[in-house]
Design goal:
about 160 residues; alpha+beta
């Protein structure tokens, strides 16, 4: 891994453009950020090597593929020793239906986001987690009815304001 690379305005613009279209050609990317293709490709490779770009992938429209249910779940653990958190996280990483897992502050320990075929499928997943005895004391489920906003691109320019860019 390359030592920390300081991001300049062009690097940020490259990241913004690639978030919008990871399949754009280097020629189109270079044109969009105001570089010639060779220096643009060098910058992209440098950003990848430094870990700023972790992958390129296709975003799927799951609703066109099949019906599914999104469920947010608050989880509280029985005990709060380091090994309790590690055991829970190790097991939860293995659950295909878990799309996100966040250790949070507040009234519970974790916030999870599941994608399942149905509510019954979600319940089977939760019952299996309880049976595995990974330290879940209680959980609360929130079934998503509608997702009016689902941004997948980070607002880099807004987040980076005031960072000396």
């Amino acid at each position: 891994m390359v030592a920390s690379v300081r991001l300049d305005r062009i690097d940020i613009n490259i990241l913004v453009q690639l978030q919008a279209d990871g399949r754009m050609t280097n020629v189109h990317l270079a044109d969009a950020v105001g570089l010639s293709p060779s220096p643009c490709l060098q910058r992209v490779k440098r950003l990848e090597a430094a870990g700023y770009i972790t992958s390129f992938q296709a975003r799927l429209n799951l609703a066109k593929i099949m019906e599914s249910v999104t469920v947010f779940t608050e989880v509280t653990l029985s005990d709060h020793h380091r090994e309790d958190f590690l055991r829970f996280e190790q097991k939860i990483r293995q659950v295909d239906e878990v799309m996100e897992c966040h250790l949070i502050s507040g009234g519970y320990d974790y916030l999870l986001r599941f994608i399942t075929r149905s509510i019954a499928h979600y319940q089977r997943v939760m019952e299996a987690l309880i049976e595995d005895e990974i330290g879940i004391e209680k959980y609360f489920s929130y079934i998503v009815i509608k997702t009016p906003i689902n941004k997948e691109q980070l607002p880099l320019r807004t987040l980076m304001e005031g960072q000396g860019q």
